[in-house]
Amino acid sequence: MSFNEALSKTLQYEGGYVNNPADPGGETNYGITIAVARANGYTGDMKDLTVAFAGQIYKSKYWDINKLDAVDAMHARLAAEIFDYGVNAGPATAAKALQEALNLLNENGKLYAELTVDGAIGAGTLSAIKILDDKNRGDDICLAVKALRAEKYLNICRKNASQEVFIRGWLRRVFS
Predict the structure, then answer these.
(1) What pLDDT was estimated at residue 67?
(2) Is residue 32 situated within a structural domain?
(3) pLDDT (tens digit, 9 = 90+) per residue, 44-75?
(4) Is pLDDT at 21 greater than 90 in this prediction?
(5) Maximum distance among all Cα pairs of the chain, rounded to whole angstroms
(6) In the predicted model, what is the mean pLDDT of residues 12-35?
(7) Beta carbons within 10 angstroms of residue 162's beta carbon
(8) Do 141 and 127 contact (CB within 8 A), yes or no?
(9) Which pLDDT value is given to residue 142?
(10) Quick check: 67 and 124 in contact, CB under 8 A?
(11) For an engineered disulfide with 80, which of 6, 44, 48, 144 has Cβ 3.0 to 4.6 Å away?
């Protein structure tokens, strides 16, 4: 799955302009918060943010930063999962979930050494993905990331009941 395909899938969930008072991100358009838009040079009204501008931000700040072209070359669905999770919770959060999942799947260090869960996808993380993918266990990585992702969303709602308004959408997004 290419970046454009992953973006298209993510935009099905992100939609257009939203300003939900329960969302701590405030105004968003195509999933881009006002803070992220401003940090990336957008100065206009959030209602006017274009898909093209959102796509530029997503490519550099969510796809490229997590080396998802390299992940995509090994396991396309995993790249799309990490991208979508990054869009929804931040790219470092998604990378940490990937690293944690990989640590859970390393058979107590028999397949590869424990990874540092630092949110930076590097050579060790990519090597671990390749080892598991070569063993036809790439889908296991996706499942573990999905489980960690769902756990995070459930914990958000446990800690802050105002976020329960989002749980159905978050879970549908994870398990679609």
Answers:
(1) 98
(2) yes
(3) 999 999 999 999 999 999 999 999 999 999 99
(4) no
(5) 53
(6) 90
(7) 11
(8) no
(9) 96
(10) no
(11) 6
- Angle at 84 (CA atoms; ends 41, 40), nearest 5 degrees: 5
Per residue in 149-171, pLDDT (tens digit) is: 999 999 999 999 999 999 999 99
- For residue 79, which of 172, 175, 3 has the smallest C-alpha distance? 3
Alpha-carbon distance of 57 to 68, in angstroms, equals: 14
- The total of structural domains in the chain comes to 1
Query: Which uninterrupted H or E stretch holds 29?
Result: strand 28-29
What is the distance between the alpha carbons of residues 146 and 174, in angstroms, rounded to a whole number?
A: 6
CA 48 vs CA 1, 14, 22, 32, 90: distances in Å: 28, 15, 22, 12, 23
Predicted local confidence at residue 22, as pLDDT: 85
Domain that holds residue 112: 3-170
CATH number at residue 54: 1.20.141.10
172-176 contacts at long range (C-beta below 8 A, 24 or more positions apart):
173/13, 173/84, 173/88, 174/146, 174/149, 174/150, 175/146, 175/150
How many residues can be counted in the chain?
Answer: 176
- pLDDT exceeds cutoff 90 at 78: yes
Query: Is 129 a domain residue?
Result: yes
Tokens of 74: 């090994």
